[in-house]
Design goal:
764 residues; ten-stranded parallel beta sheet; rod-shaped; 43% strand; mainly beta
Length: 764
């Protein structure tokens, strides 16, 4: 950059021959005394070295010579003032370049260095070159640092030392030497030119903002050094860093033109700090919706408390994205879990509240809760220390009125639990490399449409994605890989869970999960679960299996479609029911359609769909299991694909409604479950009562409740020939209520096809 070239600015003072009225003997300001007519100054027409020059006798303690023209001082512009001088007679003085700094309105700018290095003249007639560089920035080679406040200067020389000496002075020259300091002269604005000092202490906020204001599309350069920024700044032009920044936790660096992780890592020189600062800016700057990690691996020494990092808001509703990189949990004690055992009181009339909680100040929001009567995936949603109360994410089913609970706080790479509410946040193409040190994501306590897509959740220590409240409402988990660290663990020894959901309307689609204790625990309704593949066998060849998915609410209102359920099963429970006995609700509104269920190395008792009622009077109303494939491998066939787990209670078969179990495919399954079931009932000898047992066919051991069709195959014959009367049916016979009888008006023999149901079908 050269302002004389680019902007046509003339920095060179008028020659002495144009008149000494332009040369001040004071400071160069208007009205100051000049050398025009002075007795100690005269023009020499033809000096052998200088040609026309000024001869001047030193008569003052500091003899000033200042050009009265205003030489502009521009941020980022560096001027070299140069003069040739020689001693003629008398005492030889010392000489220096000097100037007067002028600010807005013509006032003097104090506090800047207005004199250059001093050179002593040592020999009569010897020509000495005296020079100094003046500029705004503290740079090597700059003799007079003026900062940004001066906008012009009156430049010249000072003579110091003994009086009486005579010198001759060649015309003073001033040239733009900015190019000496700027390597890319036309497209860079250097913050050092605006007064930035890389000492790690000086507040450079205003210098950075001033450089940004002048950049006008050019890049901003932060040279080597450590620059302290005390407050939030926004850089509206592109910026590049050779040096690094230091900022308070609550000060935000907002990069408008090149907002990505690489720039923040360049800015702070530490990838963990850079990630925090980039996330902070993402949530506080409206011009960017996504933070791109640029494919980088970001090593984290401990959990990222996203709410704490942002620091200035408790809720957030604008779509934001973190994408394209890896978060890597480094091995250290910051990931260690916190465990508190404390007594508390529980009342089923306040089903999600613990009261009289001891040691409550030690219990953290987001803690996992365990204890008698606590179902799977119950967490601390809120802590009210003043009232010794805890709000739970789910109700308890048979907790004692007073008992001990264990509160375990897992540590997460991304912890959003500090937010009261968050909506439309997206995590895209991130590998959560937990390394068995950390869990992956803890959701906000409330909110909607948290979206995790195309991510890897690799080796989470305890959990993949955790909901401790309703921040999972409408959650979408799409095309993710959940990879457990427990690949080589026996099934019975596994403790990790891929994800859990408390609120409604989850979309769990096209994911793959390997060898967790459970892939998912879902407690909300209105879910779409499709295209997932999860498998949970082990290398030991044990026959133990755990639930691949747990549906932990009765009125599930969900579809489970096109999934691959491999060496695990679906468990449907009501384990979060505080008053489960005869509560008037049913297991219902679930469609299981078009899935592949497969297993190997299991025992005959293994099954793929299990209903586990908590409390008496539980029943099924609204279940469709259609178009699925059930296939076994290995030496043992299984008996059935479905069962009731009766740890706490049986199903009440007398209340079953709208249960369809049809059009499924079975391989290596001994009993083909159907409802309605179409069977052949026949007699080779005459009898008035024909009986059949449906126990091998009807799902969940439910009773044979209705015969909905009887069609003869060929004639039904009595002693006198064909019989054309129809029988009446009796149902729910036998000790298991699985038998029916067809009762004829006379003893007959023959064959009929009979349709039997275990439920009350939809009435029309």
């Amino acid at each position: 950059m050269n302002k004389a070239v680019t902007d046509g600015i003339n920095f060179t003072p008028a020659p002495f021959g144009d008149g000494l009225d332009m040369w001040s003997s004071v400071d160069g300001t208007p009205g100051s005394a000049t050398y025009d007519g002075a007795t100690n100054a005269t023009l020499i027409a033809a000096d052998a070295d200088f040609g026309l020059c000024l001869e001047m006798q030193k008569t003052q303690g500091v003899q000033h010579l200042r050009y009265m023209g205003e030489i502009p001082m521009l941020p980022g512009c560096y001027l070299r003032v140069r003069v040739r001088i020689k001693a003629i007679s008398g005492q030889m003085p010392s000489v220096r370049i000097a100037g007067w700094a002028g600010g807005a309105g013509g006032g003097h700018v104090s506090g800047v260095d207005e004199t250059g290095p001093l050179t002593a003249l040592s020999e009569y007639g010897k020509v000495e070159t005296i020079e100094a560089i003046i500029g705004s920035g503290t740079r090597k080679g700059v003799d007079m640092v003026w900062g940004r406040d001066p906008i012009y200067g009156h430049f010249g020389i000072d003579l110091t030392g003994a009086d009486g000496g005579v010198v001759r002075i060649e015309d003073i020259s001033i040239e733009d030497v900015t190019s000496v300091f700027h390597r890319n002269m036309m497209d860079v604005v250097d913050v050092a030119d605006y007064g930035a000092v890389g000492d790690g202490v000086t507040d450079n906020s205003s210098a950075f903002e001033a450089a940004d204001a002048d950049a006008n599309g050019r890049d901003i350069l932060v040279p080597a050094g450590t620059y302290y920024i005390a407050q939030t700044i926004t850089m509206n032009n592109r910026i590049r860093f050779e040096g690094h920044l230091v900022m308070p936790d609550d000060a935000i660096l907002q990069l408008a033109k090149n907002f990505n992780f690489n720039m923040y890592e360049d800015a702070f020189g530490d990838e963990e700090i850079a990630f925090k600062k980039a996330v902070q800016a993402l949530f506080n700057y409206t011009d960017h919706e996504a933070l791109d990690l640029n494919g980088r691996i970001v090593h984290l020494s401990g959990p990222i408390d996203v709410h704490g990092v942002i620091g200035n808001r408790d809720s957030f509703g604008t779509r934001k994205v973190i994408q394209n990189g890896e978060l890597y949990a480094s091995n250290n004690a910051n990931w260690d879990i916190d465990t508190v055992v404390a007594s508390a009181s529980y009342d089923t009339d306040a089903p999600t509240t613990l009261t009289n909680v001891q040691n409550i100040s030690s219990i953290q929001i987001g803690s996992h809760v365990a204890g008698n009567g606590v179902g799977r995936e119950v967490y601390v949603r809120d802590v009210d220390v003043a009232n010794n109360e805890i709000t739970l994410s789910q109700a308890l089913y048979r907790a004692n009125a007073n008992q001990n609970y264990t509160f375990t706080r897992f540590k997460y790479l991304l912890d959003f639990s500090g937010f009261d509410s968050m909506q439309r946040f997206v995590v895209d193409a991130i590998d959560f490399r937990c390394n068995q040190n950390a869990s992956a994501i803890l959701l906000p306590r409330d909110g909607k449409i948290f979206h995790v897509k195309d991510c890897f959740i690799t080796s989470p220590k305890h959990r993949g994605i955790t909901s401790a409240g309703n921040g999972c409402s409408g959650i979408m988990i799409d095309r993710c890989q959940f990879l457990s660290w427990e690949q080589n663990e026996a099934v019975a020894d596994r403790v990790t869970i891929g994800f859990n959901v408390n609120a409604n309307d989850a979309k769990i689609r096209d994911n793959r999960a390997t060898r967790f204790m459970h892939f998912g625990v879902i407690s909300g309704t209105g879910n779409i679960i499709s295209g997932n593949h999860f498998f949970q066998g082990d290398n030991q060849g044990t026959s133990d299996r755990t639930a691949g998915m747990v549906f932990a609410t009765k009125g599930f209102k969900s579809t489970f479609t096109g999934n691959y359920v491999d060496n695990c099963y679906l468990s449907w429970t009501n384990e979060h029911s505080p008053k489960p006995d005869d509560d008037g609700t049913s297991f219902g509104q679930l469609s299981v359609t078009g899935n592949v269920f497969t297993g190997s190395g299991t025992e005959t008792w293994f099954s793929y769909i299990r209903v586990k009622p908590y409390g008496t009077g539980q029943y099924i109303s609204g279940l469709s299991v259609t178009g699925n494939t059930f296939k076994q491998f290995g030496p043992v066939d299984i008996d059935r694909v479905e069962q009731v787990t009766t740890t706490f209670a049986q199903l009440d078969g007398s209340k079953t409604k709208n249960l369809i179990f049809a059009d499924n495919q079975f391989a290596r399954v001994n009993y083909v479950t159907q409802s309605p079931v179409n069977i052949e009932v026949s007699r080779s000898s005459n009898g008035a009562v024909w009986s059949a047992d449906l126990g091998d066919y009807l799902p969940f051991g439910l009773p044979a409740r209705h015969v909905t069709a009887v069609v003869p195959e060929g004639p039904v014959l009595g002693s006198s020939g064909a019989v054309y009367t129809m029988p009446y049916a009796l149902t729910e016979l036998g000790s298991n209520k699985s038998q029916i009888s067809l009762n004829w008006s006379q003893a007959v023999h023959g064959k009929v096809r009979c349709e039997v149901r275990c439920d009350d079908p939809i009435q029309v």
